[in-house]
């Protein structure tokens, strides 16, 4: 045991010497100086007194213990700060038709969640599974999830009039919106297909907008906080067979397609963003 104690003491001494040589580096200098101070004190105590050299095991691990204690305190503090400062509406559940045309909406951390019926998307794939995956072999009945995102500077966190108008437009002009989306998608899809197949991948053949009906389905509608001409922008998130991983995202203002890209385009789009349509990566 005495031999093992001296091995531990020698290892501690070596660590302290190595740390002393690294004091010239500015980054982390204070931490290394602190280590040298308490390590040298521990080495001296265990050398000149009868204090067991095995005490060096926890002395040398002190900085790791301090880091662990800091982490144990910092995480609950951060969670507490988030709970105190997070935005909260007066009501966490908005009753049906309190903000027509939305039905019941529930607050989920930073946005409202609910469901909406868009009959024009009936007959496409049912894509209400996780990350736009297919949840059924049957065709969609037009019922999709809807997310309403309040503006960052919104005083009232309830859906704005511009957002209500945007959703009402999608319902009342759903047939026009479907045609607009598919027509805008076709040239993008054909370009993606060329680039994908040049890398050795394969994508289904699509020669007309009607062919998309059996290859994709609407997963979620994101009513964005961005507004133009008193009408909010709407992002549509789709699941699709040609790119299960990244999906498809379309941003609309009324029936006008503003941007086409991967699924994250539908909820990450910003008004000053340059429209981009990256091709899916070959599998």
Structure, explained:
The chain is of the alpha+beta class and 283 residues long. It has helices spanning 2-21, 29-48, 56-60, 62-85, 161-172, 174-198, 265-268; strands at residues 93-94, 105-108, 111-117, 143-148, 216-228, 231-240, 248-253, 256-261. It has an eight-stranded mixed β-sheet with strand order 1-2-3-4-5-6-7-8. A hairpin with a 2-residue loop joins strand 2 (105-108) and strand 3. Helix 1 packs antiparallel against helix 2. The longest helix has 25 residues, at 174-198. The protein is elongated and about 90 Å long.
Helix content: 25-40%
Strand order in space, largest sheet: 1-2-3-4-5-6-7-8
**Count of DSSP-assigned helices:** 7
**SSE order in H/E notation?**
HHHHEEEEHHEEEEH
Biggest beta-sheet profile? 8 strands, mixed
Distance between the termini: 59 Å
Measured on Cα atoms, how large is the radius of gyration? 30 Å
How many extended strands? 8
User: What structural category do the secondary elements indicate?
Assistant: alpha+beta
Return the average pLDDT rounded to an integer: 85
Uncertain residue segments = 276-283
- Overall body shape: elongated
Percentage of residues in strands = 15-25%
């Amino acid at each position: 045991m005495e031999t093992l104690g001296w091995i531990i003491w020698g290892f501690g001494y070596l660590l302290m010497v190595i740390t002393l040589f690294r004091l010239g580096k500015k980054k982390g200098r204070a931490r290394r100086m602190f280590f040298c101070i308490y390590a040298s004190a521990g080495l001296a105590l265990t050398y000149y007194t009868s204090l067991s050299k095995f005490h060096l095991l926890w002395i040398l691990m002190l900085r790791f213990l301090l880091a662990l204690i800091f982490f144990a305190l910092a995480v609950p503090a951060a969670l507490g700060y988030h709970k105190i400062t997070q935005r909260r509406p007066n009501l966490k559940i908005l009753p049906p038709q309190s903000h027509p045309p939305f039905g019941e909406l529930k607050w989920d951390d930073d946005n409202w969640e609910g469901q909406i019926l868009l009959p024009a998307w009936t007959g496409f794939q049912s894509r209400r599974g996780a990350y736009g995956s297919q949840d059924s072999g049957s065709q969609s009945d037009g019922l999709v999830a809807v997310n309403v995102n309040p503006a960052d500077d919104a005083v009232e966190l309830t859906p704005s009039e511009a957002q209500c108008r945007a959703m009402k437009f999608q319902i009342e002009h759903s047939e026009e919106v479907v045609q607009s989306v598919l027509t805008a998608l076709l040239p993008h899809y054909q370009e993606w297909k060329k680039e994908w197949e040049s890398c050795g991948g394969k994508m289904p053949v699509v020669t007309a907008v009607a062919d998309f009906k059996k290859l994709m389905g609407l997963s979620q509608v994101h009513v964005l906080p961005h507004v133009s001409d008193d009408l909010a922008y709407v992002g549509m998130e789709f699941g699709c067979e040609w790119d299960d991983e990244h999906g498809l995202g379309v941003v609309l203002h009324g029936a006008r397609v503003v941007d086409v890209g991967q699924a994250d385009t539908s909820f990450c789009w910003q008004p000053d963003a340059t429209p981009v349509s990256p091709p899916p990566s070959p599998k």
